[in-house]
Specification:
- The chain is mostly helical and 216 residues long.
- It has nine helices and five strands.
- The strands form two sheets. It has a three-stranded parallel β-sheet with strand order 4-3-5, sandwiched between helices.
- Helix 8 links the parallel strand 3 and strand 4.
- The longest helix is centred in the middle third of the chain and has 22 residues.
Length: 216
C-alpha cells in the first residue's frame, strides 16, 4: 500500500487502500498479528476476517436431552461457509442435512436461530454484504415454511408474523417465527414490508391470537 503524496506532502489513500486498512484493523481486533496479516492479498484477508468473525459469533452449544453438545456445529459451519461463498445450493443442502441429523427443537433453537442472528451480526459489522443477507433470509424463510406443516401439534394459539411497510430486513421476524414454532404456536408467516391493513386483515382472516412485528 503506497499512498500518493500531494504537493504539501499529505498522504492520499484510494478507496481500495481504505478498505484494506479497515480489514487489517478488523483482523487485528480478532486477535491476528499485523505481521501475519500484512502480507495477505485482499481476498485472503477478507476471507480470513469473515472466518474469524463468524467464529466469534458462533453460538454456544449447551447440552439438550436428545443431542450431544456441539452436534449442530458442522451444520452451522457449513451454512455460514455457504452464505459467505454466496452459494445458495450449498446452503439448501446444509439445511437439508441438518433437518435429517437434528431433532426439530435442536434444528430451530441450536441452528436456525443462531444462524439468523450470526448473519445479521456479520452484516451489521460489514463482514457480509446486503446480498448475502438477502440470499440467506430467502432460503431460510423457505426452509422454515417447509418445516411448519411438520411441526409438533399446535397449542391452539396462532400468531401472524411480518414486518411493516418500509421494514425489509426480516431476520427478526424469522427468529420470532422460529421461537413461536418451538412453543407449538401455529405460525402464519407473511414476510417483509407489508401495509398495516394487510397484516391486520390476515390476522382477522386466520383467527390469529397475536401479531408479531419485526422493526429495525
Amino acid at each position: 500500500m503506497r499512498p500518493v503524496r500531494t504537493a504539501t506532502n499529505r498522504r492520499l489513500y484510494s478507496d481500495a487502500d481504505v478498505e484494506r486498512l479497515i480489514l487489517l484493523r478488523r483482523a487485528i481486533t480478532a486477535g491476528r498479528t499485523i505481521g501475519f496479516v500484512a502480507g495477505l492479498s485482499d481476498s485472503e484477508l477478507s476471507s480470513l476476517v469473515i472466518d474469524d468473525e463468524a467464529k466469534a459469533y458462533a453460538p454456544a452449544h449447551p447440552s439438550t436431552d436428545n443431542m450431544k453438545t456441539g452436534m449442530e456445529e458442522p451444520y452451522f459451519s457449513a451454512c455460514v461457509a455457504a452464505i459467505k461463498a454466496f452459494d445458495g445450493g450449498a446452503l439448501k443442502t446444509a439445511l437439508a442435512h441438518a433437518a435429517l441429523g437434528l431433532s426439530r427443537p435442536a434444528l430451530l433453537e441450536k441452528l436456525l436461530i443462531p444462524l439468523i442472528q450470526t448473519v445479521g451480526d456479520l452484516w451489521c459489522s460489514g463482514a457480509l454484504r446486503v446480498a448475502h443477507e438477502h440470499l440467506a433470509s430467502t432460503i431460510v424463510r423457505t426452509f422454515l415454511g417447509n418445516l411448519m406443516p411438520f411441526a409438533a401439534a399446535h397449542s391452539g394459539s396462532r400468531v401472524v408474523v411480518a414486518t411493516p411497510t418500509g421494514q425489509r430486513h426480516e431476520f427478526g421476524a424469522l427468529i420470532a417465527a422460529g421461537v413461536a414454532m418451538l412453543e407449538n404456536w401455529d405460525v402464519i408467516y407473511l414476510g417483509p414490508d407489508l401495509p398495516a391493513e394487510d397484516i391486520a386483515a390476515a390476522a382477522r382472516l386466520t383467527g390469529g391470537n397475536a401479531v408479531a412485528l419485526s422493526i429495525v
